[in-house]
Design a protein that fits this description.
It is built from no helices and 11 strands. By secondary structure, the chain is an all-beta fold. The mean pLDDT is about 90.
Length: about 120
């Protein structure tokens, strides 16, 4: 079965760091882009990072203020998200997703992972 699964979430105090990992099974990364998204209860999904095939292009929303870093390891079929200086407003379920042709878009991704909970306490 082709799937993505995010892992590495947990409970962390404000100002701390977490590293999330997105693992692919049933296929190797050959899509145009892999993205990380998050969703808090009652809120829409929002993108927090995107990386192109080969890692040559990366995107982050301005509201993160440079706190997150996305990276890929094709040999391991993983895409990681290093999250630093975490804030309570970062609390959400984090998902990775792949798009076969195009850039990251929360409504146009082709394959979604199961997600991992990140909770940031004050």
């Amino acid at each position: 079965e082709v799937q993505l699964q995010a892992s590495g979430g947990g409970l962390v105090q404000a100002g701390g760091s977490l590293r999330l990992s997105c693992a692919a099974s049933g296929f190797t990364f050959e899509e145009d882009a892999i993205g990380w998204f998050r969703q808090a209860p009652g809120k829409e999904r929002e993108g927090v990072a995107c990386i192109s095939r080969g890692g040559s292009s990366r995107w982050y929303p301005d509201f993160l203020e440079g706190r997150f870093i996305i990276s890929s390891d094709n040999a391991k079929n993983t895409v990681d998200l290093q999250m630093n200086s975490l804030k309570p407003e970062d609390t959400a379920v984090y998902y990775c997703a792949a798009r076969r042709s195009g850039w990251c878009n929360p409504y146009m991704m082709d394959l979604w992972g199961k997600g991992t909970q990140v909770t940031v306490s004050s």
